[in-house]
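[SOLVED] Predicted holo structure with fe (ii) ion

Edit: marking solved, answer below. Original request kept for reference. I posted the sequence and ligand SMILES and asked for the 3D complex as structure tokens.
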Amino acid sequence: MIKTDIFKTAIYSDNFSLNNTTLRELVNNVEENFSSENISNLGGYHSINLLNESINFLSKEQLTELTSLVSKVEIFGNDIIKNFSPVKNLKIGNIWFNKSYNKDFNIPHIHPNSILSGVYYCKTSQDCGPLVFDRPDKLLVQSYFQNFFSNLNEYNYEVYTILPEDGLCVLFPSYLTHSVMPNLSNSARVSFSFNLSF
Ligand SMILES: [Fe+2]
């Protein structure tokens, strides 16, 4: 028997060693200076692009930590993209943070005009809202194919869920639909998100 995976989708995760205390100070600093954007977030705070030139008030430590995050993500992304055929250098085009409070969530969305997207968890707690990926072949779900199986695996499950933890970075293809379940804890979840492109 020859098995051929005709379509593959992968997500990638790693743990980053960063100073989350300094990143949280950065978050508070930006939150004090700008009101929230409204994009995929329902509730909570969504910052502007942190590479925007109007973010010119960060302390040296905050800027160093942000630069370190950008650098780690770009190294991670370029390591992944080696598995795809064209090789150019991936760069972060935009990076922002989300602060999500009790019951806040993010509706299903993709990140257009981008190759890889991702999230870095700066502050998490139990039940702070898992990240949920929808399988891209929606026809499987519409055909009730998964109803025939008692054990679900990557051939038949409808969604894949990631539980956030401090220091976890997850990268995924930008076309992959994802959402964030409501934060059921009483402490705010803080995460940075980013898009990488050529
Ligand atoms: Fe997203």
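OP edit: The mean pLDDT is 93. Thanks to everyone who chimed in.
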